[in-house]
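During the practical work, I worked with a single protein chain and the tokens that describe its fold, as given directly below.
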Amino acid sequence: MPETDAESSPQSRRAFVLGGATAAIVIVVDRITKVWALNALADGDIVPIEGILSFDLAFNTGAAYGLLKGGGSFIAVGAIVATGLIIYALRSVEGRFEAITLGAIMGGALGNLIDRIARGPGLFDGAVVDWIETPLWPNFNIADSAIVVGAVLLVLAAFRRG
């Protein structure tokens, strides 16, 4: 089967690689910071940072805001599906900005998926390590930040093109 023009273009291949590299960077930074949090905050200490946020170790078996507590398997399947869709979309993305945003979302989804696989008794029921806390937002981590920032930037990019 012949490749489509978008799939075979050098720009599209570069965007695919850029998205994958962005995802890899997010995963590595997320893993490093979670290991740090597990070691530095394991004794229950909360580390305040200038009143705007604090570092406080928490384990989340659900989604954001405590929704779907114990629904790790459902959330993990969603992360796998989202990753597959992003990989498919990256095959035809031409712009660097869109590739980076999709890569950030994918890296965040995979970063939290690693926790769900590695931190529980079953395949997908592990708790995600959250460690950043703000006064108005539940605990989160680097992977969560990458998902949110990537999604917001992707929406802004869509409006910019529209």
About this structure: Residues 10-40 form the longest helix (31 residues). Residues 5-161 form one domain.
